Amino acid sequence: MSLPREFALIAQHFRRLAGPGALDLSDDAALFDPPAGRQLVIAADAMVAGVHFLPDDPPETIGRKLLRVNLSDLAAMGAAPLGYLMTIALPREIPDAWLGRFVDGLAEDQARFGLSVLGGDTVSAPGPISLSLTILGAVAPGQALRRKGARPGDKIWVSGTIGDGTLGLAVLQGALPADGAGFLAGRYRLPEPRLLLGAALTGVALAAMDVSDGLVQDLGHLCRAGDCGAEIEAAAVPLSTATQAALAAKPDLLPRLLTGGDDYELLFAAPADADSLIFSCANAAGVPVACIGRFVAGPADVVVRDATGAPLALSRAGWSHF
Amino acid sequence: MSLPREFALIAQHFRRLAGPGALDLSDDAALFDPPAGRQLVIAADAMVAGVHFLPDDPPETIGRKLLRVNLSDLAAMGAAPLGYLMTIALPREIPDAWLGRFVDGLAEDQARFGLSVLGGDTVSAPGPISLSLTILGAVAPGQALRRKGARPGDKIWVSGTIGDGTLGLAVLQGALPADGAGFLAGRYRLPEPRLLLGAALTGVALAAMDVSDGLVQDLGHLCRAGDCGAEIEAAAVPLSTATQAALAAKPDLLPRLLTGGDDYELLFAAPADADSLIFSCANAAGVPVACIGRFVAGPADVVVRDATGAPLALSRAGWSHF
Description:
Two copies of one chain form a homodimer. In chain A, the strands form two sheets. Chain A has a six-stranded mixed sheet. The mean pLDDT of chain A is about 95. The first copy, chain A, is of the alpha+beta class and about 325 residues long. Chain A starts with a helix and ends in a 17-residue tail after the last strand. Chain A has helices at about 5-15, 60-75, 95-115, 165-170, 185-190, 195-200, 215-225, 240-250, 255-260, 275-285; strands at about 30, 40-50, 80-90, 115-125, 130-140, 155-160, 205-210, 230-235, 265-270, 290-295, 300-305. Chain A folds into two domains: about 5-140, CATH 3.30.1330.10; about 155-305, PurM-like C-terminal domain (Phosphoribosyl-aminoimidazole Synthetase, Chain A, domain 2), CATH 3.90.650. Helix content of chain A is about 35%, strand content about 25%. The interface between A and B is large, with 81 and 81 residues. Strand 1 of chain A pairs antiparallel with strand 2 of chain B.
């Protein structure tokens, strides 16, 4: 009696992603030797078609986006990646070619980020494609960056550029004209986990997280964890050339840039006198950073000031699933 | 600006499941100190409503089933549980009461099996409820039970009883009359991971796995891993009283018992002269075991013989998603 297609799918597609400890994806579980003298850092994120990615996104980018979103969680803690497990719920009629391209993308990012798959599960589902990934990383004991630690007076820093992902989604949905180079859609589909920067910031930043659900909402998490407020200047928030152009054409996009999801940049607190140390970390990691404001004494609220110093009215702080 | 409902759901429901290292589920990842001198055993399984559980199953049992299915993977390797991460994709309109009962069930099983949640993700989904769980366990280095290791002449053993889960599903679907006590439905909804037995069998069993997709199909995996065939006697396969009664009323259920999913019993190989050792392991674990046949030289096929010794014709070997 021949084996069902499920096993052919694993053999044909997923086995090539398997690393040491994955036991060729043919045992009940993976065997993993944790690196001696390191703390493990573990996170899990899910993605659903139509919510976190578009059903017609190229299959190559879908698995990579999920992997990168999880890598971004490791970056936020200053951890280095070790491996991952992935579960995939797919319609029964999924074409082999789709799976091949999905796995091609993962293979490319495994090589880029230096990790491999440890295990997982592939199941059928009557609904949209639903993916889940658990990532394992490592840090020196006690050295993980945490959300807690910001104090009034500390500076607020952010890496890269903000707002590209949410504009990329708008472009892909036809709500915004495309930029010529497809930069914005690329930022939506393939975020860039700031692993080197996170690692460089351990022992330097006082608190950190990755921006995934909107800059303002996520900054609120650092405020609550640090029992303080935050004031940022809209004009100081770093924007890409493409996003600057979109904003110039449509100035009312500003709130969306500050509250839209899918940035996957690092947001962190540092002492007010640590600028040169922060810039040297950023330089070593090859990622630009910008100071966008300060933490302040008071309730855990985030105030965004416009060029005149007046608070900007925002109808929401960020993305919510429910 | 108040936090979206997503965070209220985490605070109200999931935070009470969080154990050491979970950082109150309020950081980007968990921090986990692996036990010194142990190998980690890691597995991930997904469950989708309508595929792995019924949409109207009691919410208390749904998370527990997923946890137990993963614990069963640890049992199959002889590992002890340490913790887990879970991602949940839910319809936006999910009632708070449903989530409360879902988490109540998990809390009960956390206490029963001695582990707690390390992290996860809760997202909205336009389709059926889709869950994924990654479990972490530990074994002494090199002591994990593996699928590879069965040799011609070794005996084939199975724990507990086979076929209850698939009949329980038939009962819940109205295709089979219910047994008075609801035993069969209970076996479908709440499998019993054989953790103590798996641990007792390390160093004793030569190969092992858990039966999740049908006894015959899963035995085929042990055959392929061991490069041998298997012959089992249908009459030797252990059946519960409820399943015996169902079979007596409807003898053509036999193939379904041998090939249906949701058993979550341990299937293992042991030397032909190790019966007393195996029975003492089973006794220590408080789980009955039965010898159902032998591995044989030859291709990796599974032959099931009826009471006359004739091979039973089976139209399929087990469950397939695709």
